[in-house]
Amino acid sequence: MQHITTSAHAPEAPETSGTPHVTVRFPVEGRRLPADHGYALYSAIARHLPDMHGARWLAVELVSGVPWREGIIVLPTRGAALYLRVPADRYAAILPLAGKRLDIDDHPLRLGIPSARPLTPAASLYARTVTIKKFTDAEFFLDAARRQLDALEITAALELPHDNEGRPRRRVLRIKDKTIVGFSLAAHDLSDSDSIKLQTLGLGGRRAMGCGIFNPIKRERIQQSDANENTRKADL
């Protein structure tokens, strides 16, 4: 039964939410990954950088690839990348990842030399997966997301993008023995300041495992078929 409540807590703000954030791109070399690799990727990063474990300022996006066999994606031979979103003053803390090998459930990734760019405002943003604890029904999830926006004092029109069958894009993640349900989410009509704020803070939880991370996107692209479940939606 869906949990119904009249309030939803705002997402926990990063420890340095008042600091300008950047998106950091690490080129990666690898062949395949589990499609659902958020938890394994975060764990692999934390093995190399123990201080990243539990770091509220760290956001880690999934690595994009093309569906291959059930539950597996194939990485492109050129252009594959790992994206992290971090406060600008924490950039140095993640530089030791350069050149490291990450073992993602027995699938190796080699990271290259990173580059960073500042966040840029856009009127429409998209998050592949947003999770809000106890909200697994699309209608109640959307209401909870709106309340989180209100708590953050962000004004936006929220949309649940749909799949080819006209249903909200429901996302299922597995973290150890837990199954987590989330949804893709778009936010439109954002001011420049609110756009940067939403990209900085995100919505929901588990940002270190690929959730709640928003990127700029053209509105019409959200209406297209999501043929590649792991293709990066943002124009970076």
Overview of this protein structure:
This protein is of the alpha+beta class and 236 residues long. It folds into two domains: 21-118, Alpha-Beta Plaits; 125-222, Alpha-Beta Plaits (2-Layer Sandwich), CATH 3.30.70. The chain is built from five helices and 14 strands. It has helices at residues 38-48, 91-94, 138-152, 192-201, 219-222, and strands at residues 21-29, 32-34, 59-60, 66-67, 72-74, 81-87, 101-104, 107-111, 115-118, 125-130, 157-159, 170-175, 178-188, 215-216. Strands 1, 3, 6, 7, 8 and 9 form a six-stranded antiparallel beta sheet that branches. Strands 10, 11, 12, 13 and 14 form a five-stranded antiparallel beta sheet that branches. Strand 7 (101-104) and strand 8 form a beta hairpin. It is globular, with a radius of gyration of 17 Å.
Short structural summary:
This protein has 236 residues and is an alpha+beta fold.
Task: Describe the protein's topology.
Elements (H helix, E strand, L loop, with lengths): L20 E9 L2 E3 L3 H11 L10 E2 L5 E2 L4 E3 L6 E7 L3 H4 L6 E4 L2 E5 L3 E4 L6 E6 L7 H15 L4 E3 L10 E6 L2 E11 L3 H10 L13 E2 L2 H4 L14
Antiparallel strand pairs: 1-6, 1-8, 1-9, 2-5, 3-6, 4-5, 7-8, 10-13, 10-14, 11-13, 12-13
Overall shape: it is globular
Q: Strand content of the residues, in percent? A: 25-35%
How large is the radius of gyration?
17 Å
CATH architecture of the largest domain: 2-Layer Sandwich
What is the terminal-to-terminal distance?
39 Å
The residue fraction in helices comes out at: 10-25%
Provide the CATH top-level class of the largest domain.
Alpha Beta
Structural class: alpha+beta
| CATH topology group of the largest domain | Alpha-Beta Plaits
Mean pLDDT over all positions: 88
Name the helix and strand elements from N-terminus to C-terminus, one letter apiece: EEHEEEEHEEEEHEEEHEH
Count of DSSP strands: 14
Largest sheet: 6 strands, antiparallel
